[in-house]
Design brief:
The structure is a single chain. Helix content is about 30%, strand content about 15%. Strand 6 and strand 7 form a beta hairpin. It has a seven-stranded mixed sheet, with helices on both faces. It has two domains: about 70 residues, no CATH class; about 140 residues, Type I PLP-dependent aspartate aminotransferase-like (Major domain) (Aspartate Aminotransferase, domain 2, 3-Layer(aba) Sandwich), CATH 3.40.640.10. By secondary structure, it is α/β, with parallel strands linked by helices. The two termini are about 35 Å apart. InterPro entries: Cys/Met-Metab_PyrdxlP-dep_enz, PyrdxlP-dep_Trfase, PyrdxlP-dep_Trfase_major. One of its GO terms (molecular function) is methionine gamma-lyase activity. One of its GO terms (cellular component) is cytoplasm.
C-alpha cells in the first residue's frame, strides 16, 4: 500500500525537507537519488516527440529538466510561495534568463540605485546594448517610482536587503504601484531567503535568489 505525503499544509521546515519527493516512488529510498543521466527513454516514439515539443510532461534531456533538479525547483517554489520554480547554474544565469524572457528592444527596465555588481554590469553593459533602456531610481521612496513609471516600463527590479549595503525597499508599496500600471516586479531575495521574507506573498511577480556555491532559482507568482 502506497501512502503519498501531502505537504501543502505542512510547515516551512517540513516542506524544506520533504516537498516534491515521495520515497515510495523510488523503491523506498529516503534520500532522493541523484540522476546523472543526460537522456531519457520513452514508451514510444510518439511520447518522445510530444515531450520534445512541450506537449506532454516528462523529461527528455537533463539540460532542460531532470528529476533531481525538479525536486529542488518544486521545493524552493513551495518555500517561496510561487507557482513554479526554475533552477539555473548560477545567480546571473537566473537573472539573465528572466530579463531575456520579459524584455525586448525599446522596453524600459526600472532598477533600484543599489545593485549587486554583476547585475549592474549586465543591465548597463548588456541589456543596454540591445536597445533596452535601464532607468535607475531610488526605490526606497515609492513616490519616485510613481513619478517615472511609463507605458514603456515592462519590469521593476530591486534587491532587498541590497548587496552589500543592506538597504531596504518596501516590496508591497513598489508592487502595488507597478501592478497598477500593468508592470511586473522582480525581487532578488538572496539575503533574506524565504525563511525571513517571501516577496511573492508581498505582491511581487518573481522572486530570485543566488545560492552558494553555484545554485540559483527564480519563482513565478501565481496569476
Amino acid at each position: 500500500m502506497s501512502h503519498r505525503r501531502e505537504t501543502q499544509d505542512q510547515g516551512f521546515a517540513t516542506r524544506a525537507i520533504h516537498e516534491g519527493y515521495e520515497p515510495l516512488d523510488e523503491q523506498g529510498a529516503l534520500t532522493p537519488p541523484v540522476h546523472l543521466t543526460s537522456t531519457f527513454a520513452f514508451e514510444s516514439v510518439e511520447q518522445g516527440a510530444a515531450r520534445f515539443a512541450g506537449e506532454a510532461p516528462g523529461h527528455f534531456y537533463s539540460r532542460i529538466s531532470n528529476p533531481t533538479v525538479e525536486i529542488l525547483e518544486k521545493r524552493m517554489a513551495s518555500l517561496e510561495g510561487g507557482e513554479a520554480g526554475l533552477a539555473t547554474a548560477s545567480g546571473m544565469g537566473a537573472i539573465t534568463a528572466l530579463m531575456w524572457s520579459l524584455l525586448r528592444p525599446g522596453d524600459e527596465l526600472i532598477t533600484d540605485n543599489t545593485l549587486y555588481g554583476c547585475t549592474h554590469a549586465f543591465f548597463y553593459h548588456g541589456l543596454a546594448e540591445f536597445g533596452i533602456h535601464v532607468r535607475p531610481v531610488d526605490l526606497s521612496d515609492p513616490a519616485k517610482l510613481e513619478a517615472v513609471i511609463s507605458d514603456k516600463t515592462r519590469l521593476v527590479y530591486f534587491e532587498t536587503p541590497a548587496n552589500p549595503t543592506m538597504r531596504l525597499v518596501d516590496i508591497e508599496a513598489i508592487s502595488e504601484i507597478a501592478h497598477r500600471h500593468g508592470v511586473q516586479v522582480a525581487v532578488d531575495n538572496t539575503y533574506a531567503t524565504p525563511a525571513i521574507t517571501r516577496p511573492i506573498e508581498r505582491g511581487c511577480s518573481f522572486s530570485l535568489r543566488r545560492y552558494w556555491p553555484s545554485h540559483s532559482a527564480r519563482w513565478r507568482n501565481r496569476p
